[in-house]
Design a protein that fits this description.
The chain is an alpha+beta fold. It is built from three helices and three strands; from the N terminus they run E-H-E-H-E-H.
């Protein structure tokens, strides 16, 4: 993605980022600069705290991950039964 968009950020709850919880990852990408400082502060101080990863930290986070393309079959993980009560 960083080859298509110069500016990319990833937002998620810390437990989701570590693979300890099920949840969503939010990707924001732009050809122009994103307000990373503002996004980082808002994500950390929100009702549900999240991490905002960008730059070299994002490159390190996705290192070695295979790209997923439109039309690729993707098997979504199934949450344990206790997650939804």
């Amino acid at each position: 993605m960083t080859g298509t968009f110069r500016h990319v950020v990833l937002l998620a709850e810390p437990g989701v980022m570590r693979g300890r919880r099920f949840g969503n990852l939010i990707v924001a990408a732009s050809r122009t600069e994103l307000p990373t400082d503002l996004l980082t502060r808002r994500a950390a101080g929100g009702l549900t705290q999240a991490r905002c990863v960008h730059g070299e930290a994002l490159t390190n986070f996705i290192a070695g991950a295979a790209a997923i393309n439109d039309g690729d079959a993707v098997l979504a993980p199934v949450p344990p039964p206790a997650v939804f009560g």
